[in-house]
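Follow-up to my earlier ticket, as requested here are the two runs.
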Amino acid sequence: MWLITNFGFFSIVQKRGDTDLTIRSRVKRDLESLREKYLPGLDEIKKSDVTDYRYRAKVSPADLAEAMGKIVRDITYDNFKNCVAEKQSSKREHIYHKVWEDLIALEDNDF
């Protein structure tokens, strides 16, 4: 699952043979923000220069589910991209906007 928030971008997967989930990110600070704000039980953030997502950490599904509830309850903005620009930077908002534009292609297709 991809999770794009006003404090970071994450890819969440369950690696074969693991019971925990792996939360991956391209930016270390995103995982640090996730831990600080919502997920204190997030394991050590590991860095790899040979994987698609440079940073990753493990967490139990139960801990992530609890954190996701808190994340949802903290939504107070009426425009996501504006909130990203305010909290993370206009550069980050611009990157997210490009993703948003690419996803418009889904509207005209029945996949």
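Run two:
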Amino acid sequence: MNRYMKAMSNGGMIQARAGEVLENSELAAMVPSLFATEAHESRSDRFVPIPTVHVLDALRAEGFQPVFAQQARTRVEGKEFFTRHMLRLRHQSLTNAEGRAFEIILSNANDGTSAYKMIAGIFRFVCLNGLFTGETFGAPVHVRHAGKDVIEHVQSGALNILQNAPEALALVDEMKGVTVDRATAVAYAEAAHLMRHPRAYEADPETGNLMLDETKVAVAPLDLLRARRTADKHATAWHLFNIVQENAIKGGQRGYIVGSNGRTRNQTTRAVVGIDESTKLNRTLWDMAVTVTKHARA
């Protein structure tokens, strides 16, 4: 199998090729915190561990299979077996011929750094670029590591998310039928650029409005509108979302910045690899795309 991996010292990551799934032996080698059944020693007796592997087993029984896993980096020896992780699970029956699939995306940690969270997601095979749905289908499932019936709450949340699958995929079809004008596309890209590169913006001393300092970032907002494939060059809300999201999260765009010494140097934008940052950016871009779609339909 073709796998994409990174060392655990930098945060383990593994991804299955389209049509394949990940086995427990592969997951354990790269993302061991998925298999923690106890809490990290730093937690008190009130902390109730949520073993992600138990949730994985339950969802496998419902026909879901893991296709991607990642865990956060840590500098504390031994903590890599408890730290925050993210898992994507896909159901074959919810995969269509157009190359997209509905997923359950969950994150958890048994070291106190995160509650258990679960949201819906959609995966687009053409660019291996996963996206998270936002608040459109209700709030994500959050379960604290405390109290009774923790595992039952997690399993109930998974079933509730499954019920959103048809609605989520239908909304994608609706986005494909909505044409977006240039001004709206530019405004969307500007908002995404601000989220992705906040340090490149400064408040205007007179108006207080945020102003872009183009010398601090390699790409401008309009660069986020550059499609990477000819097939994506369509003026729809769906294609706008995918183009901007891929450019913002996968990185790889080239430009130049001006250093503190006044010299210009080339720079390539980096991919977003942090679990928190990726989740926040994905969900916000999705919510913005839903808003664009609703306004266009109004």
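The only thing I checked on run two: Residues 179-297 form one domain. Let me know what else you need.
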